[in-house]
Design brief:
Strand content: 25-35%
Distance between the termini: 55 Å
Number of helices: 2
Helix content: under 10%
Radius of gyration: 24 Å
Number of domains: 1
Number of strands: 5
Order of helices and strands: EEEEEHH
Length: about 100
């Protein structure tokens, strides 16, 4: 049985995607979709990282693109603030923001 959800993705393109989710009552992963395994350096024995092993109750690569989303226009992607507003030590010598 497939448990589907809608997910927004940005790579390789902005889109709404239908994805599979882990089985919530899975005894192997407790609904997380996988298990983590800590490992250490064989020489020093200290912590070196964590591996993640996906569970068999779902397929993390199963997805379908529902709706490609357009990219926002370039003028909306950048935030432009005047130097006097964002920098209190600008050429005007004071901030134009309220003191609270």
């Amino acid at each position: 049985m497939i448990r589907l959800r809608i997910h927004r993705t940005t790579w390789p393109r902005h889109a709404l995607v239908l994805t599979d989710t882990p089985r919530p009552d899975c005894r192997r992963c407790d609904g997380d979709g996988g298990m983590t395994h800590d490992y250490g350096d064989p020489v020093t024995g200290e912590y070196a990282g964590t591996d993640w092993e996906p569970c068999t109750c779902w397929n993390e690569h199963r997805r379908w693109i529902l709706l490609p989303l357009p990219r926002p226009p370039r003028r909306l992607r950048t935030s432009r603030t005047p130097a006097a507003v964002s920098d209190p030590w600008a050429a005007t010598g004071h901030s134009e923001e309220p003191p609270f």
